[in-house]
């Protein structure tokens, strides 16, 4: 495994590597993809498609390829729209932005370390059903409802009315790109 994962040379194709390891009575397919070539959604698509092929199914050709998306990105109309979006957000986020002031158990280290932990849980069927009901009633997605709940929670914990939350999104705004492999994230 350690021999398999190694740096990519961005000036040389390919930016994806595959390997097969036989371990005891199992074969493991290893896939190493540079983030410039595929995002997290793409890895899920590759995994799903490989499993389908392994099960003997034939894959459908996606309606759009990544090259179609990249050509659209550099078109003059898209450049103009992106410029308008940039201007909107620069204006919207101009001036002094609120800093989230949360009481913490420990003093924040002077140097960021990215150490931490994770709390996992499973929402029961009743809670999940209620959340989906709120999403349906408000014409939003479950993600939007959960993000709003998170925003309210941070507001309550901090005592601040203005809380800014940024999230990454898949960048696949067109349904025709849902099953296309590539780097769509545009944070």
Write the layout of secondary structure elements.
Blueprint: E1 16-23, E2 26-33, H1 40-54, H2 66-73, H3 76-92, H4 125-138, H5 142-158
Helix pairs in contact: 4-5
Q: Helical proportion?
A: 25-40%
Write down how many β-strands occur, each being a DSSP E stretch of 2 or more residues: 2
Main pleated sheet: 2 strands, antiparallel
Strand content: 5-15%
- Tell me the series of helices and strands, N- to C-terminal: EEHHHHH
Sequence of strands across the biggest β-sheet: 1-2
Distance between the termini: 31 Å
Rg, rounded, reads 22 Å
Mean residue pLDDT: 91
Number of helices: 5
Spans of at least 5 consecutive residues with low confidence: none
- Which structural class should the secondary elements be placed in? mainly alpha
Structure overview:
It is a single chain. The chain has 187 residues and is mainly alpha-helical. Among the domains are: 16-60, no CATH class; 122-167, no CATH class. The chain has five helices and two strands. It has a two-stranded antiparallel sheet. A hairpin with a 2-residue loop joins strand 1 and strand 2.
Please sum up the structure shown.
This protein has 187 residues and is mostly helical.
Q: What distinguishing features does this structure have?
A:
187 residues; 38% helix; 5 helices; two-stranded antiparallel sheet; single chain; mainly alpha
């Amino acid at each position: 495994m350690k021999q398999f994962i190694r740096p990519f040379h961005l000036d040389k194709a390919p930016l994806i590597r595959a390997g097969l390891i036989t371990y005891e009575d199992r074969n493991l397919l290893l896939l190493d993809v540079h983030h410039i070539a595929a995002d997290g959604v793409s890895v899920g698509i590759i995994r799903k498609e490989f499993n389908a092929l392994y099960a003997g199914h034939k894959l459908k050709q996606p309606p759009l390829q990544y090259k179609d998306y990249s050509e659209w990105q550099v078109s003059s109309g898209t450049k103009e729209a992106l410029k308008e979006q940039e201007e909107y957000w620069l204006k919207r986020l101009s001036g002094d932005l609120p800093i989230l002031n949360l009481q913490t158990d420990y003093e924040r280290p002077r140097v960021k370390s990215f150490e931490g932990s994770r709390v996992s849980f499973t929402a029961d069927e009743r809670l999940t059903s209620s959340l989906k009901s709120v999403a349906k009633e408000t014409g939003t997605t479950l993600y939007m409802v959960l993000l709003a709940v998170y925003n309210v929670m941070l507001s309550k914990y901090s005592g601040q009315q203005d809380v800014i939350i940024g999230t990454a999104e898949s960048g696949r705004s067109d349904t025709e790109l849902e099953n296309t492999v590539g780097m769509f994230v545009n944070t």
